[in-house]
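Hi everyone,

Forwarding the result from last night's run.
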Amino acid sequence: MDLDLGTTLIGAVSVVICVAPFVLVTRSVKKKEKAMLRSLSNFADQDNCKIHEHEYVGDFIIGMDTNKKAVFFYKEEKGATEKLSVNLKDVKNCKVSKIGKSVRKNGKVEQTVERIELIFNTSPSASKDVVFELFNYQNNLQLNGELQTAEKWANKVNAIV
């Protein structure tokens, strides 16, 4: 079966048009992740730490120096940045806080999540508990893996402390 040049050209252009958005979005996400990892690493450098493990989720990145046992958090949203760190030597435990409310809709009760936080309970000698806010419904309309990330990092921290 012979394909003429016009059909082949139209097919090739169609494939490029369909694939290009996915390639551009992936490149954009990778670029943002690299920039945020660079910012997190610079923040960790201030405490003479290095990021050995990290996880990037949307508008924040969380990382850990496994040698010095410190966790770092960097978040960018609406032009503001939030940088927090916690030394795990001062932490008793870490827990996930899922703050929400119940809403009655069509006769059914649905749970809505308003905030997800990673709370580091510190020893009495440390100043106060450290809270990383991973999700806030006022800034993000939809969850994007924040709860799973919080649970994963709480387990990692609790395994160390």
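Residues 70 and 112 are 32 Å apart (CA to CA).

Cheers,
N.
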